[in-house]
Specification:
CATH topology: Chorismate Mutase Domain, subunit A
Largest sheet: none
Shape: elongated
Structural class: mainly alpha
Organism: Sphingomonas brevis
Pfam families: CM_2
GO molecular function, one term: chorismate mutase activity
InterPro entries: Chorismate_II_sf, Chorismate_mutase-related, CM_dom_sf, CM_II_prokaryot, Isochorismate_pyruvate-lyase
Enzyme class: isomerase
């Protein structure tokens, strides 16, 4: 098994790919947890119209923008990814709401 190196220390594509695969496993685990919260939201919100919350969406986008700026990652890239993630999360929450309460 290849040790996972910091990106700055990678010298081969094998090392890079091992790092990417490791990060992807972690991201999927975090997405699983995040969508668990979407399931909880679908259970807790009083009605279907409460699922889409534009104030909360703007709040999340502002928070991840600040985090991206702090880390020095491309803020537009993060904004695009999170726009998709939030819209996918809303669609998932609506599906769960409908399946469990609709």
């Amino acid at each position: 098994m290849t040790d996972i190196l910091d990106p700055a220390n990678c010298l081969t594509m094998t090392e890079v790919r091992a790092g990417v695969d490791d990060v992807d496993r972690q991201v999927v685990a975090l997405l699983h947890r995040r969508f668990g919260y979407m399931d909880a939201a679908a259970r807790i919100k009083p009605d279907r119209s409460a699922v889409r919350d534009e104030w909360r969406k703007a709040d999340v986008l502002a928070k991840v923008d600040a985090a991206a700026a702090e880390l020095g990652i491309d803020r537009l890239l993060v904004a695009r990814l999170y726009e998709d993630l939030i819209e996918t999360s809303i669609a998932h929450e609506l599906d769960v709401f409908d399946q469990t309460r609709g």
